[in-house]
Design brief:
This protein is mostly helical. 74% of the residues lie in helices and 0% in strands. Helix 1 (3-14) crosses helix 4 (55-75). The protein is globular.
């Protein structure tokens, strides 16, 4: 099991945990909208570090982004396996070709 898979499993287990016992449980208890807001905040922090060019800070912020992405997905009952399946479906398909199949809007 990869570190990302372990993290995803831990986040899934926090969905039923007491919010007073875990930051993840507390965030999930606040609902999908709050989880999405936190993900957005972390993404902005990662963008700032990418622009600055500080490799260590960007790596740290990227880890935060991945954590909060998994929390946001869990809040909507989407698993890492679901995302991996979608990536597998796209494997070997040109990005331009894949994008052309998406609904316009």
């Amino acid at each position: 099991m990869t570190p990302l898979q372990r993290l995803s499993a831990t986040i899934q287990s926090r969905k039923t945990a007491d919010p007073d016992s875990s930051w993840t449980a507390k965030l999930l208890a606040k609902g999908p909208e709050k989880c999405a807001e936190k993900f957005g905040e972390e993404a902005i922090e990662a963008i700032i570090e990418a622009v600055k060019g500080d490799r260590a800070r960007l790596t740290s912020e990227a880890a935060d982004v991945m954590f909060h992405l998994l929390v946001m997905l869990a809040a909507r009952d989407i698993t890492l396996a679901d995302v991996e399946a979608e990536l597998a479906r796209r494997d070997g398909v040109s990005g331009l070709a894949e994008k052309a199949t998406r609904p316009k809007g």
